[in-house]
Write a structure and sequence with these properties.
Blueprint (H helix, E strand, L loop, with lengths): L6 E5 L5 E5 L5 H10 L19 H14 L9 H13 L5 H17 L2
Antiparallel strand pairs: 1-2
Length: 115
């Protein structure tokens, strides 16, 4: 995360790194999270309570537990289905992309606070 340039680096498929802008609405939440999380010796933004990187397996466990709490565990939802649904709604013009970006981070921060 580069708060001076308002960019964050994301590593995607194929280990390809790309820079994403940090939107002005998102910035205060990101700053708050970075200040609240444990001190770490790695570049991962999202961590467990103990400061370890939040890997895919932990995200899946968190997602499954949230589905269970919402009594939706048998509906066949996956993290990818959420991504697909959000992309479809954005494509159809139902959401402003910037609002979706900020809401997603708020949700992630709330989920991480429960870890």
């Amino acid at each position: 995360v580069d708060l001076v340039r308002d960019e964050m680096s994301v590593v995607g498929k194929g280990n390809i790194r790309r820079a994403l802008p940090i939107l002005s609405d998102l910035r205060p939440y990101l700053v708050r999270w970075l200040a609240a999380r444990p001190e770490v010796d790695h570049d991962y933004v999202f961590t467990t309570r103990t400061g370890h990187p939040l890997y895919q397996k932990a995200c899946w466990r968190l997602f499954r537990s949230l589905l269970k709490r919402a009594r939706l565990e048998h509906k066949g939802y996956t993290v990818h289905s959420l991504r697909h649904g959000a992309a479809t709604q954005m494509y159809e013009g139902l959401y402003n992309l910037q609002n979706v970006y900020v809401k997603r981070l708020r949700i992630i921060v709330k989920m991480l606070e429960t870890l």
